[in-house]
Amino acid sequence: MQAAVLRGTQNGYDLVIKQSAGLDQVMIDLKTLLENLRVDPKADAGKISLDVLTEDRILTAEEKQRIEHLVSQYPRFEIHKMTANVMTIADALQLKERDNVHLLSKVIRNGQDVEMQGDVLFLGTIHEGGKLCTTGNIFSMGNVNGILQAGYPEDETKLIMGNLQTAQQVRIAEQFDIVEANELAASNQTIAYVNDLHVLSYGQLDQLKKINPKLYNQIGGI
Amino acid sequence: MGKAIVITSGKGGVGKTTTSANIGTALALMGKRVCLMDLDIGLRNLDVVLGLDNRIIYDIVDVAEGRAKLPQALVKDKRFDDKLYLLPAAQNTDKTALKPEQVKAIVDELKPEYDYVLIDCPAGIEQGFMNAVAGADAAIVVTTPEISAVRDADRVVGLLEQHPLTEAPRLLINRIRRNMMQDGTMMDIDEITHHLGIELLGIIFDDDAVITTSNQGEPIVMNTDNPASQGYRNVARRMEGETVPLMKIEDQGQPGFWHRVSSWFHRG
């Protein structure tokens, strides 16, 4: 069985590297394959872009380089991308962290910064001078007397939802608002978001469809 | 085996040293063996408040650096018959002269000898605070009913939660002015306790006599009738596990005319 197989698809060519073969065998087979294609007189002169599929194997940077180097010796071919069916546990955990809604119920005191990944459903208390910071959205059902920051460091599409009346500051990405007394109603359906003019502004939950259609659709709105 | 308790606040000037001296004295009056440790290196006051300043030979830095043995540095308070000792701070160096491990070693050496080792923490949350907390089993967070003191107490409680001691910190609200609290112009005790979210150990009323007695080197606890003194005694009793109700905020004031008249008939 060949360790390197060229497969035609609707979108072009896939170069499948079998996971059962060692990389040295792959290199030998790949070289043979490319040699054969080079001498094929029927092939037209156009450049062929390859998607390299490594099946259930993750290649290291060095191994990828070896394959890229070999392919680069054949001017008819170029590598478009390399993909595997699997990912490392570290990457998977990061993805999980990023895409999950995290429950957080703790007291964030004066001087404490809590940094999170992904969306946060906050049920605790933030005292004056405390800060909750996350890369995703914040949905707050707790008492906020400190600072909330969503979309850290620069994602302006994120929003903060909950009762923000007593907060000291609301921050989304690089935009911030110092919440003045009586600026906001004591509603737990307040939404803070960054508008088209890159200014932080406030709305209500029933306006979510207009404020952030992407999130609205994602969570099941029609 | 005794218990080491750090008395801290974050903010300066809320009465950590006065509290240390008075709780220590109150416990000694109850017959407990107490050692007070002053960790406010460079700005020591605990010795002055106790009236022991002219008896200091060696200090805690001398002990930590091996220039003196621990028993040599301890200053005995003769008023309490072998019950109250002070380990004074150094005056000619700064807070970086000690390391947390050294303080912990000294506290561990003291604990078997005493029922309570009370550690007077310096203001701030830097090296001095870390040193004071290093050897402690429990903490008393002192605050006053002012927003700045409560904010700093919140910060300190947060730090204590990050490096948990054996026991959860307890709160002592100092310098309560009865009249202002009755008028509602001062932060409420329940409000402060609820905000900080830790157990209330006691409340101490503000009293002029605290200053005058402290100037004479005699803790207010020695004066049995004083309301501040009663507050500290109650705190000491609660530390011993007794259930003592909080003192009433309402001023007793002068008894009314009819009350005085009726009391004549009850006298016999």
TrEMBL record, chain A:
InterPro entries: CAP/MinC_C (IPR016098), MinC (IPR013033), MinC_C_sf (IPR036145), MinC_N_1 (IPR055219), Septum_form_inhib_MinC_C (IPR005526)
Organism: Levilactobacillus suantsaii
Pfam families per the UniProt record, alphabetical: MinC_C, MinC_N_1
Family: Belongs to the MinC family.
Domain of life: Bacteria
Protein name: Cell division inhibitor
Limits of the Septum site-determining protein MinC N-terminal domain: 5-81
Record-level GO BP terms: cell morphogenesis; division septum assembly; regulation of cell septum assembly
Coiled coil: none
SUPFAM superfamilies the UniProt entry points to: Cell-division inhibitor MinC, C-terminal domain (SSF63848)
TrEMBL record, chain B:
GO MF term list: ATP binding; ATP hydrolysis activity
Cellular compartments per GO CC: cytoplasmic side of plasma membrane; cytosol
GO BP: any one term: negative regulation of cell division
Name used for this protein in its record: Septum site-determining protein MinD
Keyword list, A-Z: ATP-binding, Cell cycle, Cell division, Nucleotide-binding, Septation
InterPro entries xref list: CobQ/CobB/MinD/ParA_Nub-bd_dom (IPR002586), MinD (IPR010223), MinD_FleN (IPR025501), P-loop_NTPase (IPR027417), ParA/MinD_ATPase (IPR050625)
Record bears the keyword 4Fe-4S: no
Gene of this entry: minD
Domain CobQ/CobB/MinD/ParA nucleotide binding: 5-220
Similarity remark: Belongs to the ParA family. MinD subfamily.
Key word Cell cycle present: yes
Stated role: ATPase required for the correct placement of the division site. Cell division inhibitors MinC and MinD act in concert to form an inhibitor capable of blocking formation of the polar Z ring septums. Rapidly oscillates between the poles of the cell to destabilize FtsZ filaments that have formed before they mature into polar Z rings.
